[in-house]
Specification:
It is found in: Cytoplasm. It comes from Flavivirga aquimarina. Residues 473-612 form the Peptidase M1 leukotriene A4 hydrolase/aminopeptidase C-terminal domain. InterPro entries: Aminopeptidase_N-like_N (IPR045357), Aminopeptidase_N-like_N_sf (IPR042097), ARM-type_fold (IPR016024), LTA4H_cat (IPR049980), M1_LTA-4_hydro/amino_C_sf (IPR038502), M1_LTA4H (IPR034015), Peptidase_M1 (IPR001930), Peptidase_M1_C (IPR015211). Keywords: Cytoplasm, Hydrolase, Metal-binding, Metalloprotease, Protease, Signal, Zinc. The protein folds into four domains: 31-221, Sandwich (Immunoglobulin-like), CATH 2.60.40; 229-314, Zincin-like, CATH 3.30.2010; 316-460, Orthogonal Bundle (Neutral Protease, domain 2); 474-612, Serine Threonine Protein Phosphatase 5, Tetratricopeptide repeat (Alpha Horseshoe). The chain is of the alpha+beta class and 617 residues long. The protein has helices at residues 2-13, 18-23, 238-247, 251-262, 305-312, 329-347, 349-369, 394-411, 413-426, 434-446, 455-460, 474-489, 502-510, 518-528, 536-548, 556-566, 570-582, 586-596, 602-612, and strands spanning 42-54, 59-70, 75-80, 83-90, 93-94, 97-99, 108-113, 120-127, 134-137, 149-152, 173-180, 186-189, 202-211, 218-221, 223-227, 232-237, 270-274, 283-284, 289-292, 320-322, 430-432. It starts with a helix and ends in a 5-residue tail after the last helix. The strands form five sheets. Strands 5-4-8-2-1-11-13 form a seven-stranded mixed β-sheet, with no helix packed on it. A five-stranded mixed β-sheet has the order 15-16-17-19-18. β15 (223-227) and β16 (232-237) form a beta hairpin. The chain contains 19 helices and 21 strands.
Length: 617
């Protein structure tokens, strides 16, 4: 019966290639504006990477070999940017290829000639000094200042700058890698990793679960490993290992709490590597190996919500991935929601609500910044012709979270948790776009329980709907009263702040009254020495306020400059440079930036270049 049905189907379809559709299980990919690839014609499925990391010349050289699903195509297209292509093979034989016109955002399409039977392509290539994903650090730019360091950052569309690839989040591939590095260094990837150095600097890796290209990551440095549990641990430079191990000692508890909420952790190992301070993000959720900034090492575990956030990405982002960067909120909104649930489970509702209130304040500021471009405050974006980094802001994170929190409060936590667990299970190791999520939400939660909710208003319209969840925090109300008391009485009572968390201090600094005087700031600084805070988050918001209110006490100008030169975390440095710009101090900002820029990853430098109108000589 099956054979007869197939023959009849082919006769009915006539000119369409029935055998082509039956024999090649290529997914139905959506049109994706940030990739040249045409995966409905031919798609990569597995990568074998064989590369040498050359610190002397600061290049990576080698070959990327792909298994492909071929829909009887005559060519396959990969994304490249700032890569030199030496030669290309199809099934082991040299084949012709062309590089298309260069686009400043997207790079160039690498068009490789194949035939309908081609199963493997291999690209021999090397990176260049313009490669944006790579940051090569001299020993002086590392923590221990003995050996050089390299790390990659692929999100959103930078993997194409160090590996020729179909660089779209809807592509999912497995990979193996062979990486040669100097013998005194260790290489680690978003894959199964070594725990000790090899004698010859040769490392092999395997990622058995299919991941999106932006999650392929590599770090090379003089690092060590220290286990937290049998499935969690820390990589860091020698002087940082013990500090990081203490700071992140709750990692196993976080994994267990996450599993209790939404199902088994699907990646076997959850490790964190603490990178040098130039890393541009707080963290990056590379599967099995989160990349993290050292700015979260505060000595009191007060900033570890970042680890909970990156862990949550193991479900929302890595397991179920946004199909395009227009749908980025599906990664980050879900992850912030999950992060808050982990923090609530481990540290209580007060801690989670303080974090959520700070996020709500960030969202208000972001919306104000988009008052001239309100479409940018929609969850579902249209980023065609724009850098996808334009959508990586508080809208995706905090409006996405607020939508899900409001939804949870509307339907009830029990129903919502059942829905989310089902969502992760049914879409595991796949990609999803907003419209598919809305359909799943309607079918499996709202219509199923007869619940009415303004989903379209939340996702497709600007601003925040009126039915938003109201996030309360008694602790923050106390903080606000303390600010007023200090200003009103011109005195500081340290007993009122002795048990404050980082979140309370941040709220304190961010909520100074508009009419606060510099003498009040001096009084507060004398009492709490905020200018010299070892907590980078508190320091960042304090420096911002010092610029806003023209405070120059306690040698703070030098401290701000030192902070901006040392720290490359984009959120922190952009906040401070933005304060300079907002207060008509661009010349001061540029003078510092010229000293700091060489220490920044391209992700951070590009943002500050645009903000300050900086052009290299």
């Amino acid at each position: 019966m099956k054979k007869i049905t197939l023959v009849l189907g082919c006769l009915i379809l006539l000119n369409s290639s029935c055998s082509k559709k039956q024999n090649n299980a290529i997914p139905n990919y959506i049109e994706e504006p940030h990739s040249f690839s045409q995966p409905n014609d031919a798609a990569i499925t597995h990568l074998d990477l064989d590369i040498n990391v050359d610190f002397d010349n600061e290049i990576i050289q080698g070959k990327a070999s792909y298994l492909i699903k071929n829909n009887e195509a005559s060519q396959i297209i990969l994304d490249t940017k700032f890569i030199t292509i030496d030669k290309v093979q199809a099934d082991g034989k040299d084949t012709t290829f062309t590089l298309g016109d260069f686009d400043t955002q997207l790079g160039s399409p690498l068009k490789i000639d194949i035939n309908q039977n081609t199963k493997r392509i291999t690209v021999f290539y090397k990176t260049t000094h313009k490669t944006e994903a790579l940051q090569w650090l001299k020993p002086r730019q590392t923590t221990d200042k003995i050996h050089p360091f390299l790390f990659t950052q692929g999100q959103a569309i930078l993997t194409r700058t160090w590996i020729p690839i179909q660089d779209s989040p809807q592509i999912r591939i497995t990979y193996n890698a062979k990486v040669q590095v100097p013998s005194q260094l260790m290489a680690v990837m978003s894959a199964e990793n070594p725990k000790t150095k090899t004698p010859d600097g040769l490392y092999t890796f395997k990622m058995a679960q299919p991941i999106s290209p932006y999650l392929i990551a590599l770090a090379v440095g003089d690092i060590e490993y220290k286990a937290v549990s049998n499935r969690t641990g820390i990589y860091a430079e020698k002087s940082m290992v013990d500090k990081a191990h203490y700071e992140f000692s709750d990692m196993e508890n976080m994994v267990a709490s996450a599993e209790a909420l939404y199902g088994t952790y699907a990646w076997e190992q959850f490790d964190v590597i603490v990178l040098p301070p130039s890393f541009p993000f707080g963290g990056m959720e590379n599967p099995r190996l989160t990349f993290a900034t050292p700015t979260v090492i505060a000595g009191d575990k007060s900033l570890t919500s970042l680890i909970a956030h990156e862990l949550a990405h193991s479900w929302s982002g890595n397991l179920v991935t946004n199909a395009s960067w227009d749908d980025f909120w599906l990664n980050e909104g879900f992850t912030v929601y999950f992060e808050m649930r982990i923090m609530e489970a481990l540290y209580g509702k007060d801690r989670a609500n303080m974090l959520a209130r700070i996020g709500r304040q960030d969202l208000e500021e972001e919306i104000e910044g988009f008052k001239d471009t309100p479409d940018d405050t929609k969850l579902k974006l249209n980023l065609k012709g724009r850098n996808p980094d334009d959508g990586m802001n508080s809208i995706a994170y905090d409006k996405g979270y607020l939508f899900l929190r409001t939804l949870e409060e509307t339907v009830g936590r029990e129903k919502f948790d059942t829905f989310l667990k089902s969502y992760f299970q049914k879409h595991a190791f796949s990609t999803i776009h907003t419209e598919k999520f809305v359909a799943f939400l309607n079918d499996n939660l709202l219509e199923k329980h007869g619940i009415t909710f303004n989903t379209d208003e939340w996702i497709y319209t600007a601003g925040i709907p009126d039915n938003q969840s109201i996030i309360l925090s008694d602790k923050f109300e106390t903080v606000e009263k303390t600010v007023q008391q200090f200003v009103k009485t011109n005195t500081v009572d340290k007993t009122l702040t002795k048990d404050w968390t980082t979140q309370e201090w941040v709220h304190f600094v961010r909520n100074f009254p508009d009419d606060i005087k510099t003498e009040h700031l001096a009084m507060i600084d004398d009492a709490f020495n905020l200018t010299n805070s070892n907590n980078s988050y508190i320091a960042m918001v304090w420096y911002e306020q010092a610029i806003n209110y023209d405070y120059h006490g306690n040698n703070i100008d030098t401290k701000i400059e030192d902070f901006l030169i040392k720290v490359g975390r984009r959120w922190y440095v952009s906040t401070i440079y933005k304060a300079f710009k907002r207060n008509d101090k661009v010349e001061t900002a540029l003078a510092i930036y010229k000293k700091a820029r060489s220490n920044y990853h391209s992700v951070t430098a590009n943002t500050i270049d645009d903000m300050l109108g900086y052009k290299q000589d």
